[in-house]
Amino acid sequence: MKVRISFAHARARWSVSQFLFLLLAVVSLGLYGYTYVERVVYQAYESRLFDRAAGNRAPATSSNPETTPIAGVVQADRKSMPAPESAFPISVIGRLSVPRLQFSAMVREGIDRRTLRVAVGHIPSTALPGQAGNVGLAGHRDTFFRGLKDLRPRDEIQFATPIGNFKYQVESLTVVEPDNVEALAPSPENVLTMVTCYPFSYIGPAPKRFVVRAKQALPEAAVDKPGEKERQRANAEPAPNLVGLEIR
User: Fold this and answer.
1) Phi, then psi, of 129 in degrees rounded to 5
2) Which range, of 31-40, 165-174, 209-218, 237-246, averages the lowest pLDDT?
3) How many C-alpha atoms does 108 have within 13 Å on its Cβ side?
4) 14 confidence band (pLDDT: 50, 70, 90)
5) What is the pLDDT of residues 154-204, one digit of tens each?
6) For the chain, what are the domain ranges?
7) What is the DSSP code (8-state) at residue 146?
């Protein structure tokens, strides 16, 4: 009798455990599905909007302090299109692509969690495409920047913006500590730096950072070289490290 009762209790506990594991799996799948759909919808919407505005290359000004001049053209055209509920009212820098990897993603200003969930983020303290300096981009290793592990030196990177199209050539692929400040330091040349977490297959918060450095190949001259005041300010401000980037 005692054996029968113990068996019934064990079976009941096992049934409860199965139910809890199933519930956890359903919730996790639902969260992943939501973030995936949100990312796809945002990218599709912003890509369509960017293509519509591609013919107008004159940068627009905005009274919004969060809006960068390079994104003014895209935001000006935004009024003519109904935005989906998942779209964020914030500036878009342009479209990043790597032809060999068949990779393409919209780049948005900022590196907060909300931004990096749906786009590649432009690091605010770094240069913009077309400016002399270091253009810094950040992305998650399990979404947009997953393909960086397959990059090779001399690969071409394209960055389309409302003020023009820029081509970069990969010069180096390095792994650094999160407190590294050299990766995002100002540069006298037009360079592009992409940062994500490393190792790519690591479970949990990754301990290292994977850094891609590329040099601008076309156009050869900078569109908007900073003046003396901008150069002095860049030299006075310390280069950001990679600890504060909310990448995983």
Assistant:
1) -55, 135
2) 237-246
3) 27
4) low
5) 999 999 999 999 999 999 999 999 999 999 999 999 999 999 999 999 999
6) 28-236
7) G
Distance CA 27, CA 11 (A): 24
Q: For the stretch 154-187, what's the b/e string if a residue is b when 16 or more beta carbons lie within 10 angstroms of its beta carbon? A: ebebbbbbbbbebbbebeebeebebebeebbbbb
* pLDDT (0 to 100) of residue 76: 41
The amino acid at 116: L
Burial class for 195, CB neighbours closer than 10 Å (0-12, 13-18, 19+): buried
**Residues 239, 242: Cα–Cα separation, whole Å:** 10
Rounded-to-10 torsion of CA 77, 158, 151, 121: -30
Which amino acid appears at position 235 of this protein? N
Rounded to two decimals, what is the model's pTM? 0.71
- Fold of the domain spanning 28-236: Sortase; Chain: A; (2.40.260)
CA atoms within 13 A on the CB side of 126: 31
Q: Give the strand pairing for 156-161 and 208-218.
A: unpaired
Closest CA to 130 of 212, 62, 220, 60: 220
At residue 240, the pLDDT reads: 72
